[in-house]
Amino acid sequence: QVQLVESGGGMVQAGGSLELSCAASGRTFRTYAMGWFRRAPGKERVFVAGAGWGEFNTYYADSVKGRFTISRDDAKNSVYLQMNSLEPEDTAVYYCAAKIRGFAFKENDYAYWGQGTQVTVSS
């Protein structure tokens, strides 16, 4: 069982930056692939970024490539999402998610979810 707690959301002007953090419980964090998803108002939840287990590969949605960076610190049982050059279209609730081992893009493949943190970007 893994419990995830996100933090770091808030309000920022367009062009600004925020860093989201996700702290995970459990002693086997390093064996989980981690993902960030977001749900904008009135829209479905979608993949944003991910980091695999046992590998150094990272994955990004086209809409955030070059602006967002995912990283993980297995010693701290944490994963981060550095968000730069934020746009009003990035406004959403951001969720951290975990799954055993192999990375996946689909939210249905993730067994564990945080409660979400709101990010609001004003123009």
Your description of this structure?
- This protein has 123 residues and is an all-beta fold.
- The chain has strands at 4-7, 10-13, 18-24, 32-39, 45-51, 58-60, 68-73, 78-83, 92-100, 112-113, 117-122.
- Strands 2, 4, 5, 6, 9, 10 and 11 form a 7-stranded mixed beta sheet that branches.
Distance between the termini: 40 Å
The strand count comes to 11
DSSP strand content: over 45%
- Low-pLDDT stretches are none
Major sheet description = 7 strands, mixed
List keywords for this structure.
123 residues, mainly beta, seven-stranded mixed sheet, four-stranded antiparallel sheet, globular
How would you summarize this macromolecular structure in one to three sentences?
It is built from no helices and 11 strands. The protein has strands spanning 4-7, 10-13, 18-24, 32-39, 45-51, 58-60, 68-73, 78-83, 92-100, 112-113, 117-122. The relative contact order is 0.32.
List the helices and strands and how they pair.
Layout lengths: L3 E4 L2 E4 L4 E7 L7 E8 L5 E7 L6 E3 L7 E6 L4 E6 L8 E9 L11 E2 L3 E6 L1
Parallel strand pairs: 2-11
Antiparallel strand pairs: 1-3, 3-8, 4-5, 4-9, 5-6, 7-8, 9-10, 9-11
